[in-house]
Specification:
The protein has 307 residues and is of the alpha+beta class. It has three domains: 113 residues, TATA-Binding Protein; 119 residues, Hypothetical protein, domain 2 (Endonuclease III, domain 1, Orthogonal Bundle), CATH 1.10.340; 49 residues, no CATH class. 46% of the residues lie in helices and 14% in strands. The protein is built from 14 helices and seven strands. Helix 10 crosses helix 11. The radius of gyration is 19 Å and the shape is globular.
């Protein structure tokens, strides 16, 4: 074990609540909760490092202690620090948003139990896009299982105390896969082919996903939706997961349709996409973030903890 750094997120930052939410994933992939800490394998050049993040502060004075528990090859400590700070979104400042929610009874009813839960992010847009393509039109737990299988199939990772922690597959590795290879994911052949083709384009440089970080969010959204097989939901959710953009409401998300009905209208079951849009539209720039919190409330209330 080697101490790496201490992160100082902007308050309020409720790290135990983040662990609680992540523990509700039935088939965890990159974001692992174990022994009261957060674990993740990070790539650094050709090397890998297993990072452990522990809570060392409080809601109003947050501190996160980061240690390297195992590594393979040469790794850049500065890069490791930048990646884990990005994934844990330590620069996010939700204080003004929280205060605005306090002024609205409906919004506060949704947000209050989640105060301090800053949305975590993927290491890259590539990772987020692969995830969301797998998740298109299948159940959440089935998508998690497919994503977990993919990591185990590729096998990149590190062993620590008898457990394997996986790194996300490189674009080159998935570009070399075949549809037959990916059949155990149980997604459609069309989506398998899309995973492979986009991985090929990233590998050859035809598609610069990470460069979209420096684009205007709307321009990045338009670039993604020009790709055949990527619609509003996939683009909006991928940009949210990778960069933290909350510029859109994923109105055609089945979970959001159910959650909006429950927490905003007191109903049961799905409502139409138009009703989801109408629910959040009055909140203007806060609409996407409120929709995100609404979905997380559903996860907390609907799914049991694992491990």
């Amino acid at each position: 074990m080697m101490y790496l750094t201490t992160l100082y997120p902007k308050p309020p930052y409720h790290f135990p609540l983040l662990l609680d939410v992540l523990s509700r994933f039935a088939h965890p992939t990159m974001d692992i909760v174990q022994d009261g800490a957060y674990w993740r394998v990070v790539r650094s050049g050709s090397g890998l490092a297993l990072l452990r993040v522990q809570d060392a502060g409080s809601l109003d004075q947050p501190q996160l202690q980061v240690s390297v528990m195992a590594r393979q090859g040469e790794v850049d400590q500065g890069q490791l620090e930048r990646v884990i700070a990005h994934v844990l979104h330590v620069e996010a400042d939700r204080r003004a948003f929280i205060e605005r929610c306090r002024q609205n009874t409906d919004a506060w009813r949704v947000v209050e139990p989640l105060v301090g839960l800053v949305e975590w992010r993927t290491e890259s847009l590539y990772e987020a896009l692969m995830q969301t393509i797998i998740e298109q039109q299948i159940a959440w737990t089935a998508a998690q299982k497919a994503q977990r299988w993919l990591l185990e199939w590729v096998g990149d990772g590190l062993d620590y105390q008898g457990q394997r922690y996986y790194a996300y597959p490189t674009p080159a590795r998935l570009a070399a896969a075949t549809v037959d290879d990916l059949t155990p994911t149980r997604i459609t052949f069309k989506r398998m082919a899309l995973l492979i083709e986009l991985s090929r384009q990233v590998t050859t440089g035809e598609l610069d996903l990470e460069g979209l970080l420096h684009s205007d969010p709307q321009a990045a959204y338009q670039r993604l939706t020009r790709i055949k097989g990527i619609g509003h939901w996939t683009a909006a959710v991928a940009l949210e997961r990778a960069f933290g953009h909350k510029d859109w409401v994923a109105y055609n998300d089945v979970v959001l349709q159910n959650a909006t009905n429950r927490y905003w209208h007191g109903g049961v079951g799905r409502i139409q996409p138009e009703a989801v849009v109408a629910t959040f539209e009055p909140f203007g720039a806060d609409a996407g973030l409120l929709a995100h919190y609404t979905m997380i409330r559903w996860v907390v209330d609907q799914y049991a903890r694992h491990g």
